[in-house]
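Sequence design from tokenized structure. All designs in this work follow the same two-part layout: the structure record, then the generated sequence. An example of the structure record is given first.
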């Protein structure tokens, strides 16, 4: 009798810090258990840069701060049956979205870049310029949570979520018995 098909998953980090991917590895020895159930396609974990086939689950870390993030997120939505936003950056924009708070300026993005590269107190930029290589992806006017760009099926909250929460969510989804989070398991105090 042939083995049941393993689920295929893909992961990506957009405007995130890779902390959520590190949390994925915090599953520790249960990774072995998980790998019996899944094959990993496009992901920084495999260094596969493009989808080789359709995936059952896509896991997205980070929101969208630039044009490339949006295209990658669209690609994930097109190629994954279920899309999970993992961590506060993917769910709400997180730390990168602090720049969304610059509202008192006529040109908030320009003000943000000026402070980051030129006028900031601790900046030592000998070129006194803002990087503008054409190869750099175009920055968006603000940082967008994934749910404002595509439909997201599940969210795993936390910064970063614990390995336990990630494992329980993924194993529950793969077994078709995920019923949401237990209230006492999602605490930030
Ligand atoms: Fe990093 Fe936290 Fe954002 Fe995850 S949610 S990418 S750990 S800052």
């Amino acid at each position: 009798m042939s083995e049941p098909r393993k689920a295929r998953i893909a992961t990506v980090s957009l405007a995130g810090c890779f902390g959520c991917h590190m949390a994925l590895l915090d599953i520790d020895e249960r990774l072995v258990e998980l790998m019996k159930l899944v094959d990993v396609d496009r992901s920084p974990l495999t260094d596969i840069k493009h989808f080789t086939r359709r995936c059952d689950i896509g896991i997205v870390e980070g929101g969208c701060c630039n044009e490339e993030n949006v295209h990658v997120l669209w690609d994930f939505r097109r190629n994954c049956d279920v899309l999970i936003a993992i961590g506060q950056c993917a769910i709400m924009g997180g730390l990168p979205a602090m720049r969304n708070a610059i509202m008192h300026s006529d040109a908030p993005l320009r003000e943000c870049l000026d402070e980051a590269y030129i006028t900031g107190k601790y900046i030592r930029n000998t070129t006194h310029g803002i990087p503008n290589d054409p190869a750099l992806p175009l920055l968006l006017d603000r940082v967008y949570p994934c749910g404002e760009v595509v439909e997201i099926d599940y969210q795993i909250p936390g910064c970063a979520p614990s390995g336990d929460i990630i494992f329980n969510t993924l194993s529950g989804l793969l077994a078709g018995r995920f019923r949401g989070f237990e209230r006492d398991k999602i605490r930030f105090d």
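Residues 67-79 form the longest helix (13 residues). We note this feature because it recurs in several other targets discussed in the main text.
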